[in-house]
Specification:
InterPro entries: GlbO/GLB3-like, Globin-like_sf, Globin/Proto, Globin_bac-like_CS, Hemoglobin_trunc. Its cofactor is heme. Belongs to the truncated hemoglobin family. Group II subfamily. This is Globin. The protein has one domain: Globin-like (Orthogonal Bundle), CATH 1.10.490.10. It is 63% helix and 0% strand. The chain contains seven helices and no strands. The longest helix has 17 residues.
């Protein structure tokens, strides 16, 4: 169930999430800082990201229904997330937001929320 007045609803729902995730993983799969910590086949990773972002932006709780509590930091601990990789991840996301035609002010709010999350994911010094 989608709650009215959410970021999910404001940006256009599932279609916008799909465009964003597709644009994002196209960049991740080519980024020299990120490819070492991502699988060669990004299909399942992108699917999980669609579930997560849907829920994170206020849409249906489909991530938790399938995978339980997100526990993002714990799930990311096996991967060396350095400040450089965090910045590369955010750069890919910012470019994907533009490509997916996520309009302002939503784009800036999303970047702000994801920056806080990305900062929390860092677990390794350079």
């Amino acid at each position: 169930m989608t709650r009215p007045g959410t970021m999910f609803e404001a940006i256009g729902g599932f279609d916008s999430i799909d465009r964003l995730v597709t644009a994002f993983y196209k960049r991740v799969g080519e980024h020299p800082e990120l490819t070492p910590i991502f699988p060669d086949d990004l299909t399942e990773t992108a699917r999980k990201q669609r579930l997560f972002l849907t829920q994170f932006f206020g849409g249906p709780m489909i991530y938790s229904e399938e995978r339980g509590n997100p526990m993002l930091r714990r799930r990311h601990l096996p991967f060396k997330i350095t400040p450089t990789r965090k910045d590369a991840w955010l750069e890919c996301m910012e470019k994907a937001l533009v490509e997916a035609e996520i309009e302002e002010p939503y784009r800036s709010v999303i970047v702000e929320k994801l920056t806080m999350t990305a900062n929390h994911m860092m677990n390794t010094l350079e």
